[in-house]
Write a structure and sequence with these properties.
Number of helices: 8
Shape: globular
Strand order of the largest sheet: 2-3-1-4-5
Distance between the termini: 18 Å
Number of strands: 5
Structural class: alpha/beta
CATH superfamily: P-loop containing nucleotide triphosphate hydrolases
CATH topology: Rossmann fold
Helix content: 40-55%
Length: 186
């Protein structure tokens, strides 16, 4: 269980291309305290790719799972040292949420759902050109847990407007947050 000196965590959850990274960048500009933006993609980019290119699908899946488990613990470590952390991370597999609920037990976690219309996701994915076509549409599981603290929709709202809404809403949230409720109801 974490202590009172722990940092806070904002978890930006949404499909690929929904705007999590852009909102995270904008949050750094509008939150009053120093925050770390720790996107899972940047964490994964620290891993050597030379050896992983030769792995079969099962071996690669295991490496990716270990990377994500480590990511959860790195975020908890930053927060345990009193740092506030923004996670840019899709909860696209149930085990990710289950592990985070355990690892971040006792931490002040604000779960933000970053939504976007399917048409706009497809458009962004095409424009980016760095994601497999259909990835965003395949990540429907990101919202299956059914609980959240804040929802933003980037279909028409700019990242700065979404970030401002998150920053303004954080102080008005009930003491019991989504992670607390998910932990109680398993």
């Amino acid at each position: 269980m974490a202590s009172e000196s722990n940092g806070r965590v904002i978890l930006l959850n949404g499909a690929s291309s929904s705007g999590k990274s852009s909102i995270g960048d904008a949050l750094l500009e509008c939150l009053p305290d120093p925050w770390f933006l720790v996107p899972v993609d940047a964490f994964g980019a620290m891993r050597s790719e030379t050896r992983t290119q030769h792995l079969d699908d099962v071996e690669l899946a295991e490496v990716l799972k270990r990377t994500r488990l480590g990511y959860h613990r790195a975020v908890a470590g930053l927060a345990a040292a009193g740092n506030d952390v923004i996670m840019d991370y899709p909860l696209s597999e149930r085990w990710r949420l289950d592990d985070l609920v355990t690892v971040l037990d006792g931490y002040d976690v604000t779960l933000v759902e970053v939504r976007c219309s399917p048409e706009e996701l497809a458009h962004r994915e095409h424009e980016r050109g760095d994601r497999p076509v259909g990835l965003a549409q395949s990540q429907t599981a990101v919202y299956e847990h059914g609980d959240f603290d804040i929802v933003v929709d980037t279909t028409r709202a700019a990242p700065a407007a979404c970030a401002a809404h998150i920053a303004e809403t954080m102080d008005t949230l009930a003491e019991s947050k989504a992670f607390d409720r998910l932990r109680r109801h398993g």
